[in-house]
Amino acid sequence: MSISVNAAFDGGNIRVVAIEGDRLDLEIVRDHQSDFYQWFYFRVAGAKGRALTLRILNAGGSAYPFGWPGYKARMSEDRVAWRQIDTSYADGVLEFRCQPSGDLAWFAYFAPYTMEQHEALVARIARAPGVIHRELGRSLDGRAIDCLTVGEGPKPVWLYARQHPGESMAEWWMEGALERLTDPADPIARTLREKCTFHVVPNMNPDGTFRGHLRTNAAGVNLNREWHEPSLERSPEVLCVRDAMDGTGVVFAMDVHGDEAIPANFFAGYEGIERWSNAYGDKFYEFGRRLAAHTPDFQTEQGYAKSAPGKANLSMSTNQVAQRFGAVAMTLEMPFKDHDPNPDPEFGWSPERSKGLAHSCLEVLADYIDEL
């Protein structure tokens, strides 16, 4: 049986350059109207028993080539379990090797969370008792920006994810958060619902998700550089979410992402905004300290450089939300690699661990919300 490669499905991304025996030479396709690329997701048919070598020839020109060293590609034969496979990076080429047991195998940058999965999640959570679903607006391709509101407490909390659609671990985190918040028997969830009203946007970039983009929407726009001045023409996804925030106010906000290079979970904060004070900033730092003490799947040593005083980029959501509302706001970054302080050699950082980290974040918030 001959080998064939296909990415013509929800979230798929790859281009075939050549197939020679058991070696597949491939390229990642750029985001539409953008130079960004790094996300890949495709299937191989006719793979049974073959010792495959898959080479992504243009990996060196990707958005974050410094993320490839130490990275391991994910493979699944059932699209449920995504295991790490033998992967190397040299001379601008990402190479991974495997020997599938069945005819079909799927490969991805990280375990995918497709638009079909998103629709199923929204349908399931919207039916839970006490949940209110709103369509905040539409994307450039006409897809819904879904918001699920949970709780009746006085403190408005916003959780939102996938401004960068290739960061699929972010929606796995959202699934974990929504399942926990809507559990009627969970005492922590009950406490949070009494004290807070959660506004949860599981996917801010449905067009990029469906198109197999790494970082941009249908117009090639990076949504996390639009929060200072979103528009219907470029970034209606941000505009409708920010407008909704203006209507509710924000006390606590978490923008959920994935990071290509750093092999750990960490927060980025709002240092450098004009309304920064040490007392205000310490509320953000304290949440990170408590989360690191609460779970081995979080740490505070590794992360991004902090903005200098007055130099915060207000086009980014965390800075804009903190400056606009005085909220304790943060960007959660999860790795495409593994959380090296607590590694898993078989699965690396995974959907299950992403969901578990969401549970930990909510547990810490339950103890901390009275102080905000």
TrEMBL record:
This is Peptidase M14 domain-containing protein. It comes from Sphingomonas aracearum. Its cofactor is Zn(2+). GO terms for molecular function: metallocarboxypeptidase activity; zinc ion binding. Belongs to the peptidase M14 family. PROSITE patterns: PEPTIDASE_M14. Residues 111-372 form the Peptidase M14 domain. Transmembrane segments: none annotated. The active site is at 333 (proton donor/acceptor). Signal peptide: none annotated.
